[in-house]
Write a structure and sequence with these properties.
7-stranded mixed β-sheet; 6-stranded mixed β-sheet; globular; P-loop_NTPase; ATP-binding; ABC_transp_ATP-bind; nucleotide-binding; ABC transporter domain-containing protein
Length: about 700
């Protein structure tokens, strides 16, 4: 049976002869006159050849544990107590020279942010060779040969050894980091989110490599991850951390199927899978302290970390004569009431086009009628019941013009809950995605290189995009999927006006925008209607600017607003994305990764764009924060009528979030179509391979 552990407890079934032993580890950070404890009395053992998964939300202390084991914390600002031993050698309190001798040789780490961890001034092969030569004493030729071997093992051609980090995609940079960590065959490998930026096929390749290393040399792996799917297929045991405390541990298969702690169950439920009903709101883990009681519904509900739709936020709960008790978090939802003007009367198309369009372009939606609270994942929408829709629910309110009766409905793609019945209601014209493309690329080609160098030689061109044609309709979400290096981000940057196409046509709302990347005036005009949400929430925000300055920059460029009006708009945007407007004066480093991503979304929304290009917006986030951001994007898409180009390598997220899907490989689109068609009956062999790898 899975055990539940409190602070200071040791995980069940520890190995008798551990290669890594952690006892009563506590890590505290000091700054601005206060001390914050990130890890509280953590203890565990890691045996030779074992893979131990360390799981938890952003800010739970996972990476802090990994850095402490490597001896990488700044002694001037960090207090580390307890014991960490590698093969019997103590890390805590050891001289720097002793720790450096261990680091890289007997214990190594794969860092989450590969771009920041790699030197931009040296070829990747030289960096791998240096790590090998320092600890082995090998010569230059042996170092180059070892670097080529390791690159090949992680799926990168040895011919790329002379390339620099900026010449690789995000996923390929992560593979370089893994090669560098494994080059000395260490006894312990700490892998901090090693597959976060990787697509399903490369992720499987990297995890297979870790398994091979474990079998060949007995390397022990501490796998720090938020992906419970990775834990399920890789780890022997699993530790779950929350706010610096160990809350549960045990065999991985036991915890994933029979978790006892509500927080563990919430983390498992927050990640969408290929079986998740598309379009429903994802549960969010309750972000209270470790000693607090579980949130409503077994740890899933409206807690400190959850996002509540602006349409219902702050609405007082209905009394006993209305819809029943308030939902978790004190937000009520009266089934007989109508939403605010932001969504009132707005028809909602069912995700994925569950049925044929009605006369006049209306879209049928599933409506469940009841006087109680909407089921989980539903949102109350005001819809006028048509003739024959049934009697008006008691207390539903006055009749509308024309004799229509307002009823409380919940819109979803899943089956109606008990006590509800499905009624065919025609949404007004214009509810669904526009058949005409708001933005499109036609026969797009993009090449890099092919220019004369300083030495008079012409570099070989790289064809990143080859003959791609895509369309994003008004109010539509198009998912662009494919492996790392397939050309997804390049295509997205062209559509956003940041990359000049080599050939082909790029249009937005009928205008040719192909020269936006080199035409400053056209780019400025386009940026008001097309905004980006970048993959890296850390690198995409200026660390020297406050949140107010970051969010209001588009307003200064595109509007004549005064300073007070801009500040009011920034406060409104922060509230819209679920952040406290009082934090406008803070800087990016004072926020978590998920909060920074929401700041990026607020900045993108500032000029009220019609299209948002989201380039891997949730790939760097843990499952609970990912659920928050996806729920937020769905709310904003519905409330503001946004169109989105959603770039991702996560097939489960794309299936959950997008209306249509285009699959890219080696710069070309191999398949595209409605979501259910692509995922349910894929035509291309490559699409089938991606789906098989994701299962």
């Amino acid at each position: 049976m899975t055990e539940v552990f409190g602070p200071g407890a040791v995980s069940g079934g520890p190995p008798s002869d551990p290669v890594l032993r952690v006892r009563d580890l506590a890590v505290s950070f000091t700054g601005r006159g206060r001390t914050v404890t990130a890890v509280h009395g953590l203890s565990f053992d890691l045996a030779r050849g074992e893979v131990l998964g360390l799981v938890g939300e952003s800010g739970s202390g996972k990476s802090t544990v990994g850095l402490a084991a490597m001896g990488l914390h700044d002694a001037a600002r960090t207090r580390v107590s307890g014991s960490i031993s590698v093969g019997g050698t103590e890390i805590v309190g050891a001289p720097d020279s002793a720790v450096r001798a261990l680091r890289g040789a007997r214990i190594a780490m794969v860092f989450q942010d590969a771009l920041a961890a790699l030197s931009p001034f040296h070829p990747v092969g030289a960096q791998i060779a240096e790590a090998y030569r320092i600890h082995s004493g090998a010569g230059r030729a042996a170092g180059r040969a070892r670097a080529a071997e390791m690159l090949d093992r992680v799926g990168i051609p040895a011919t790329r050894a002379r390339d620099y980090p900026h010449q690789f995609s995000g996923g390929m940079r992560q593979r370089v980091m893994i090669a560098m960590a494994l080059v000395n065959a260490p006894d312990v490998l700490i892998a901090d989110e090693p597959t976060t930026a990787l697509d399903a096929r490369v992720q499987r390749q990297v995890l297979s490599l870790l398994a091979e290393l474990r079998e060949e040399s007995g390397t022990a792996v501490l796998l720090i991850t938020h992906d419970v799917g990775v834990v399920a297929g890789t780890c022997d045991r699993m530790l779950v951390m929350r706010n610096g405390h160990l809350v549960e541990s045990g065999p991985a298969d036991t915890l994933l199927t029979n978790a006892q702690h509500p927080y563990t169950r919430a983390l498992i439920d927050a990640a969408p899978t290929l079986e998740t009903v598309p379009g429903v709101r994802l549960p969010v883990a309750f972000a209270a302290g470790p000693d607090d009681g579980p949130a409503a519904g077994g740890g899933v509900g409206c807690g400190a970390g959850s996002l509540v739709s602006a349409a219902t936020a702050g609405r007082p709960a209905a009394d006993a004569g209305g819809a029943g008790p308030a939902a978790a978090g004190g937000v009520g939802c009266d089934a007989g009431s109508l939403l605010s003007a932001a969504t009132a009367g707005r028809p909602t198309a069912d995700a994925g086009g569950a049925g044929p369009a009605l006369a006049g372009g209306a879209v049928p939606v599933a409506v469940s009628v009841d006087t109680g609270l909407p089921p989980a994942g539903h949102r109350a929408l005001p819809v006028a019941a048509g003739k024959g829709a049934g009697p008006s629910p008691a207390g539903a309110g006055p009749a509308l013009a024309g004799g229509a009766v307002p009823v409380a409905v919940s819109v979803d793609t899943g089956p109606p809950s008990a006590g509800h019945r499905v009624l065919p209601v025609a949404a007004a014209k214009g509810a669904g995605p526009s058949p005409a493309g708001l933005a499109e690329v036609i026969d797009l080609h993009v090449e890099f290189g092919g220019r004369r160098t300083l030495w008079g030689r012409r570099s070989r061109p790289v064809r990143a995009v080859r003959g791609v044609s895509l369309r994003v309709g008004a109010g539509e979400t198009l998912g662009l999927v494919g492996e790392s290096g397939s050309g997804k981000s390049t295509t997205a940057r062209v559509l956003a006006g940041l990359q000049r196409p080599t050939a082909g046509s790029v249009r937005f709302d009928g205008r040719d925008i192909g020269r936006a990347a080199v035409d400053t005036r056209l780019r400025r005009e386009l940026s008001r209607e097309v905004q980006l949400v970048f993959q890296d929430p850390y690198a995409s925000l200026n660390p020297r600017r406050t949140v107010e300055e970051i969010v209001t920059t588009p307003l200064r460029v595109h509007t004549g607003m005064g300073a007070a009006a801009r500040r009011d708009r920034a406060a409104e945007l922060l509230g819209q994305v679920g952040l406290d407007p009082a934090h406008l004066s803070r800087y990016p480093h004072e926020f978590s990764g998920g909060q920074r991503q929401r700041i990026g979304i607020a900045r993108a929304l500032a000029p009220r764009p019609r299209l948002i290009v989201a380039d891997e917006p949730v790939s760097a986030l843990d499952v609970s924060v990912q659920a928050q951001v996806l729920n937020l994007l769905m709310d904003l898409r519905d409330e503001l009528g946004l169109s989105l180009l959603f770039v991702s390598h996560d097939l489960a997220v794309v299936r959950h979030f997008c209306d249509r899907v285009a699959v890219m490989r080696a710069g070309t689109v191999v398949e595209s179509g409605p979501r259910d068609e692509v995922f349910g009956d894929p035509k291309a062999d490559y699409t089938r391979e991606l789906l098989a790898a994701a299962l």
